[in-house]
Amino acid sequence: MKWVTLGIIAIAALAGIAALIGSRLPRSHHASAERILPVPPEPLWRTLTDVDAFPAWRRDVKRVTRLADRDGKPMWIEDGKSGKMTFAFERMDAPNVLVSRIADPKLPFGGTWTFEIAPAAHGSRLRISEDGEIYNPLFRFMARFIFGYEGTINAYLAALEAKFHGV
After folding, report:
1. Which of 132, 155, 159 has the alpha carbon at shortest distance from 25?
2. Which strands, in side-by-side order, build the sheet including 83-93?
3. What angle do CA 48, 53, 56 make, to 5 degrees?
4. CATH of the domain at 66
5. Range of the domain at 156
6. Which tens digits make up the pLDDT trace of 59-99?
C-alpha cells in the first residue's frame, strides 16, 4: 500500500510540475508545414473541401456528421480517435485559400488551419498553417514537449500523400 501511495504522489507531483511549466508557456502558437502533392490545385481543393469523404482517406476520422451551413459554408462534426470535434470553414477562396476553424468552445484548445494551395511543377504546393490556442496549461505542456505543434499537420499531410500516391 505504501508503494501505491508513493506512486500516486509521484504522478500527482509530475502532473503539477507539467501544469506549472505549461502555465508559463504562451497560450497561442503558430505552426506550419508544406508538401508538394502530385495533383493539380482544383482536385486538391475538392479533396480538402469534401468533408463527407474525409473518413475514406484520413485514418483519424471514423465518421463525419454534417451540420447546417454557417454563413453559406460547411460545418461538420468529426468523430475520430480524439473524440468528437466540430469544425467550420471560415474562408473558401477556391482553389487557393481555405480556412477551417475548430467551432467547439467547450474544448481545451481551438484555432484555425489555413490551407494555401499554389501550382507547382507536377502538381500543387500545399502549405498548412495552424494558429492555435491551448487553454489548459497541462495540454500546453504536452503540445510543446510531447506531441509538438506540427504533429497533427504532418499527419494530415501524410494522409494526403498516401491518398494521392501513384496519381
Report:
1. 132
2. 28-37, 123-134, 109-120, 97-102, 83-93, 73-80, 61-70
3. 110
4. 3.30.530.20
5. 2-164
6. 999 999 999 999 999 999 999 988 999 999 999 999 999 99
The partner residues of 156 in beta bridges, in order of sequence, read none
C-alpha span between 114 and 94 (Å, rounded): 13
CA distances to 3, 148, 150 from 18, rounded to whole Å, are 22, 15, 20
Residue 89 in grid coordinates: 470553414
Count of domains forming the chain: 1
Instruction: Give the integer Cα–Cα distance in Å for 124 and 35.
Output: 8
Query: Element (H or E) spanning 54, and its range?
Result: helix 54-57
pLDDT digits (tens, 9 = 90+) for 142-153: 988 988 889 999
Average pLDDT over residues 133-161: 92
Cis amide bond preceding 95, omega within 30:
yes
